[in-house]
Every structure is written in C-alpha cells, then in structure tokens.
Specification:
Elements lengths: L2 E3 L3 E6 L8 E6 L3 E3 L13 H10 L12 E13 L2 E19 L2 E15 L8 E15 L4 E18 L13 E15 L14 E2 L5 E2 L4 E4 L12 E2 L18 E2 L17
Antiparallel strand pairs: 1-4, 2-3, 2-15, 5-6, 6-7, 6-13, 7-8, 8-9, 9-10, 11-12, 13-14
C-alpha cells in the first residue's frame, strides 16, 4: 500500500540569544507519498530514514506480550555524509504493552515507547568529531478489534554536532576556514489521530495532548490491565494520565511539529501480536 501524508502543517519556532521574543513560522507541506508500505510497518522500497519514521508513527509490537512486559527493538539510521562516508547512529526502541483502555467504544492497547538512539561509532580513518542523539518517548493507542491506531504522540529531542576539517581542494583558496562546524538541536512533538471517526468514537472521547509534555484525558474511560475480550472484565472507570518523558531541552532551539493524518483502517494488523 501507499501511505499518503496530506494537509500537513509545520510550525517552527526558534529562540535567539539576546532576543526576548522567539521567531515562529508556519508552513503547509506538500503531499508526501511513502510507497510499498507493508501491513507490519516495513517498506518494500524505502530509505532508512523513512523506515525509522514508520517505527515512530506506527510502533507495532514485534511479538506477543503480556501487560507490563517490554521488548527492545534495535534500530539504526544514517545521520551524516562526511565527504562520501555515510555515518550511522544506532540505538534501541523499548516498547511496552502498558495496559488496555476504553476510548469511546473502542478497546485499545496502550503502547509506551522509550526512544534512545545515540550510539555513534566513528571509523578511526575519519578526522573530526561527530555526534548524533535522538531521545524521547511516545504513547500510542491501538484498536485491537479494528486493527488500527486510534491516536498517539511522540516527544523527541534531536541533536547533531559536527566538527570536521575543511576538505583539501588541491590548491590554495583565500579565506578558507580551517574547519566546518555544524550544530543542531530540535524539540519535536508529533501527534497522530484517526480522521475517519467510526460510530462510538467522537473527537471529545479522544485523549488530548498538552504542550507541557503530559497526555491527559478530560473524561473518564474504562481502564483494565486484563485482556478485554474476556467476559466479566472490570467495569470501573478511572482517569489515566500517561506521561511523555521529554529529555531536558533547555537552551535548545524549539521546532515543534504537529501532524494530523488519516490512518487506513486496514493498516497495522500485526502478524504475531495477540494481546
């Protein structure tokens, strides 16, 4: 299948040293198509960056888990091309089946993910210093009957620091710098919500994301740690407030991104996960 991103709006803001007010800019993105998306979230044809994006937007468990259990998923992605040498950063996504909850009439699994991709192994042949870090967490809700994601959020802090020598051009160049420095810090908040709302699910019953990095629910809904398909499961209501743990981003340029997209109802049916 092809996954199409439409009507994406990106809001970027930056805090400049010495200025009281931050600069902000909104931009409507062009439609983006990711081709060859499989049911398990993998891609027939795609880049490592696209595959990483799919893992963040649709965090599917790779195997069966009991409530409270976690699984570590190793990941790696390119982060910089140093004069033809492609450098990679490695890490891990720790996914946890936290609990089962009711959102409207939907029975959903709450999937919590801790993101830590910061292991950089630089070949000794390369001069300079290279560092990349992607850390954060996410909370997603997966309808176990309809086999689709209902909503979710990812809070991610990304950092890149490069200090490399200027390439030798083979001749003397006036005012040629001794080195090249690149530094980038960004604080990203990505939200996903099912646009095709079916009977029993209204926008009012969905969780809401506040910018203070906590996911809160304004209305109570059923919460149970037991598999919901069993007869006589707990019927009490409780208010649940899972938290997105955002690494300390003080002093960094903020570029929050809010993305709303339609999720195909047939997407996300896991082949091995049986909650």
């Amino acid at each position: 299948a092809n996954l199409v991103f439409e009507d994406m709006k990106k809001t970027m803001s930056s805090d400049n040293e010495g200025e009281e007010e931050s600069d902000s800019m909104e931009q409507m993105g062009q439609p983006m198509v990711i081709q060859g998306l499989k049911e398990d979230g993998s891609l027939k044809v795609g880049t490592a960056s696209q595959e990483m994006l799919m893992k963040l937007l649709f965090p599917l468990l790779p195997k069966s888990l009991e409530v409270g259990e976690s699984v570590d998923i190793p990941v790696q992605m390119p982060f910089f091309n140093s004069l033809g040498s492609m450098l990679e950063v490695k890490g891990c996504l720790r996914m946890k089946l936290a609990k089962y909850v009711k959102i409207g009439k939907r029975t959903c699994a709450q999937l919590n993910t801790d993101i830590d991709i910061s292991e950089v192994d630089i070949p000794s042949e390369l001069e300079g210093e290279y560092d990349c870090s992607i850390k954060g967490s996410s909370v997603f809700y997966f309808d176990i009957k309809e086999q689709c994601f209902v909503c979710g959020w990812s809070a991610i802090v990304m950092g890149l620091d490069i200090d490399m020598p200027t390439p030798d051009l083979g001749r003397d160049m006036p005012r040629q710098p001794e080195g090249i420095q690149i530094s980038m810090k960004s604080d990203n908040l990505i939200g996903l919500m099912l646009v095709d709302v079916s009977p029993g699910l209204t926008a009012d019953s969905l969780p809401t994301q506040k910018r203070d990095d906590s996911v809160t629910r304004e209305r109570p809904f059923t919460s149970s740690n037991d598999p919901p398909a069993t007869k006589g499961s707990r019927k009490g209501t409780s208010t649940v407030s899972p938290t997105l743990r955002l690494p300390d981003g003080k002093g960094q340029n903020n570029s929050p991104r809010n993305i709303s997209l339609a999720v195909p109802r047939t997407f996300g049916k896991p082949s091995s996960w049986r909650p």
